[in-house]
Structures are given as structure tokens and as C-alpha cells.
Predict the structure.
Amino acid sequence: MSCMEKYIKNANFADTGFSYTMSLISGKHKMVILYCLMEYQPVRFNEMKRYLGKITDKTLSSNLKELEEDQLIVRKEYPQIPPKVEYSLTERGESLMNVLDQLCIWGSQNRLPQ
């Protein structure tokens, strides 16, 4: 058995930083939500919904709660009538934007002609 075979036999993808990062941003909408906040923060719920297009209130709310639990975004509620809630990136979320920005650059440079 080669050294590489021994290494991969004991390796566990779930223990990698890549796996952890993907667990935070996986799903159909989370990266788009983060991108929206990177570009336009702070963003209100209905503005976010319009930006994302076809998404239900429940799905958007669920994604926002998960991102908030993972400390990537912050929800700020204003005590007024009608209620006003805004979302923005946390410092931790801002640090992830370097990765998202690199994905955008790569996509722009490598987009295939349609």
C-alpha cells in the first residue's frame, strides 16, 4: 500500500475546512443571499425577496435564520410601526466575501459563450 493510499484511507472529508465552509453556504439560496448583502447591505426582507426572484417567505426566512445562527449575518429590528427589519453581514460574514468575490471573478473570466 502506497503512502497516499494509507493517507486517504484515514482521511475524512467531513473534517476538512472545505467541508465546514460548504456546510455554511450550501443550498440553493444562501450564496445568493450573501452576495446580495455584499453588494447592497443593509437589505430588508422584501428587498431580498425581490432580488432572489422565485423564493417563498418560509424558505427565505429559514435561510436567513440559518445564516444568522452561523454568525454570517445579523438581523436588526427597529421598534416602529410598521415593523422594520434589516439584514447585513457580520465581520465573520465579511471575511467570507473574499471567497465569494473570487468566485465572481472566476465566473467573469471563464464564462463560456452562449
Residues 91-110 form the longest helix (20 residues). Residues 46 and 57 are 9 Å apart (CA to CA). The chain has a mean pLDDT of 90.
